[in-house]
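Aim 2 progress update. The chain analyzed this quarter is reproduced below.
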Amino acid sequence: RGRQGSFSRDWAQVCAQAARRAVAEHLERTGQTGATVSNQPGAARWLRVRRPLPQPAPLVSIIVPTRDRLDLFQRCAEGVLHGTDYPAIEFVVVDNGSVEPETLAFFATLRADPRVRIRAAPGPFNFSALMNRAVAESRGEILLLLNNDISMIGGDWLSEMVSHAVRPNVGAVGARLLYPDGAV
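Predicted structure tokens:
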């Protein structure tokens, strides 16, 4: 602490480096090989631990229920299929009775991608029932339940989630969701 009781930038940097070293030493001591620790750009007090993916990467079934609302779903689908750097996905679309021609035409284009399966599930919207139906048909070792109004802001999002999900002491992983203005 400085004489006036405020932290100096230099002292904050020393603390951030010490924290990074402490976490790296913990990872090494506990046998978590391959993990790296870095300070977050612009927020040096926050640390990011990145873990390697197993090889081969496990198949992830990304399950999205939707009914029309192409304005939402198209952005989600394009993010999953073209804005994700994870190598092993199946994209399971649960169509809860879409009728709009634009949506049906988009589904037709999606079917050309071998990673995509579209399952018809007409009837009243019941998120749990739709997800359970898709899970029963999914082939992935990891399941990702995703809403149709989600878009991706970085290609590494799924790799990051899977790197945590495959840890033996982890049962579920969630992401921080942001509004378009950046608010949590």
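The chain has a mean pLDDT of 89. The chain is about 35% helix and 20% strand. These observations will guide the mutagenesis experiments scheduled for the next reporting period.
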